[in-house]
Amino acid sequence: MIRNWFALVMSLSVVSMVSAHFVFLVPDAKNPAQLVAVFSEDLEVDENVPADRLKGLKLWSLSDAGQPAALETTVGENCLKADLGKQAANVQYGTLTYGVMKRGEMPAFLLAYHPKVVRGGVTAKAATVGSERVPVELIPIVTGTNVKFQLLAEGKPLADAEVNVIAGDGEKSKLRTSAEGLTSAVSASGLVGAYAKFTRAKPGEHDGKAYTEARHYATLVVDFRK
């Protein structure tokens, strides 16, 4: 009985850990031509999460003309890595359909992540991937030493949504979007991360498993280190 109770507690702990993690794309500080994909609570590699959590992640680099080019990934230690080449573009993005999740008596849902990384000097227009490629995304709008985030769902601003921000000093905060999908400003320094959820209330099927809704998470990392 005690053994079964302990197993249940451990199982719930694992579910809680995974649910609090998100996919982030982070430029390698030592090698700007290399991109690191992490599955973590912050912008660092989580040593407790194996790289196979990122299996199926597809990445692209977006040219200045807005054309995507697929990136190949290699397995690193608790992460995935991608080489950007000598002339790396300023925007990379990806998508990972994690799968159909079922927790207790709650209806099953599809879980998907849409990470993006942007260099700090990129304009909002150049940082926009587009709804034909991702269902939800965060756009950085930089003014001086501050940055706001605009949340777009299916290409339109998403109002009154929660945007979680990881500031350059590691401090975390929660912001709400306006009618234009904009958050208030935060300091634009170091690496700044953000993530937000968009729920598409439409049933479907993935890998033979039915779900009642799809939960899409947009993540963004903006590199202000240069």
Structure, explained:
This protein is mainly beta. It has one domain (22-224). It is built from one helix and 18 strands. It has one helix at residues 2-19; strands at 22-27, 34-40, 58-62, 68-71, 73-76, 79-83, 91-101, 109-119, 136-143, 146-153, 156-157, 162-166, 172-176, 186-187, 190-200, 204-206, 209-211, 213-224. The strands form four sheets. An eight-stranded mixed sheet has the order 4-3-7-8-18-15-12-13, with no helix packed on it. A four-stranded antiparallel sheet has the order 1-2-6-5, with no helix packed on it. Strands 9, 10, 11 and 14 form a four-stranded antiparallel sheet that branches. The longest helix has 18 residues, at 2-19. The radius of gyration is 18 Å and the shape is globular. The termini are far apart. 37% of the residues are buried. Residues 1-19 have low confidence and may be disordered. Keywords: Signal. Residues 1-20 form the signal peptide.
Radius of gyration: 18 Å
Q: How does the major sheet shape up?
A: 8 strands, mixed
The rough form would be described as globular
Strand content: over 45%
Helix run count:
1
Poorly predicted ranges: 1-19
Distance between the termini: 57 Å
Count the domains: 1
* Adjacency order of strands in the biggest sheet: 4-3-7-8-18-15-12-13
| Structural class assignment | mainly beta
**What's the total number of strands?**
18
Q: Percentage of helical residues? A: under 10%
Mean pLDDT: 89
Order of helices and strands: HEEEEEEEEEEEEEEEEEE
Keywords: Signal
Signal peptide: 1-20
